[in-house]
Amino acid sequence: METIGHSGKVIIRKAKKADVPPLVGLDQEASQEIDWWKPLERSDFLKKIESSDWVYVTEEKGRIVAYLTGEARGKTIELENVYVQKEDRGGGIATHMIKRFLSDVKATHYEEVRLFCPENLREFYESFGFEIEGIIMKKELNAD
Q1: Which of 3, 59, 81, 136 is least surrounded by CB atoms within 10 angstroms?
Q2: Within a domain: residue 133?
Q3: 93 near 10, Cβ under 8 Å?
Q4: Number of domains in the chain
Q5: Beta bridge partners of 69
Q6: pLDDT digits (tens, 9 = 90+) for 110-133
Q7: What would the pLDDT profile of 32-66 be if each residue is shown by its tens digit?
Q8: How many of the other CB atoms lie within 10 Å of CB of 98?
Q9: What is the pTM of this model?
């Protein structure tokens, strides 16, 4: 048996409406830590949970320490966000959440999973079989 998380007592499951308050808290934490992260509102999480099967949480000792969201787009699922609370990183939580997500998606009619990936996470996502397809470029409009 593989140990996940620091306590080894971790549950990865689909999110429920009752999970919205801790999800909003984690999302706010992510937006403070990661420059490009756009936090979701409570209503956004509710809509995602009600209309999609692609919102997962990781619970450790009764508290939500991580989440993952995906969004269906035609025959593709976009892996949107994966966030693990800072103090709970390094225990394999993100890896196991992504494996669960990919397994669940594979069991459906969707043909592929896509994601936008910062360069520092490229090797991590490649370890799941993701491949580079094109390059996203940007230009800061207020920077000269």
Answers
A1: 136
A2: no
A3: yes
A4: 1
A5: 55, 81
A6: 999 999 988 889 999 999 999 999
A7: 988 888 888 899 999 999 988 799 999 998 899 99
A8: 21
A9: 0.86
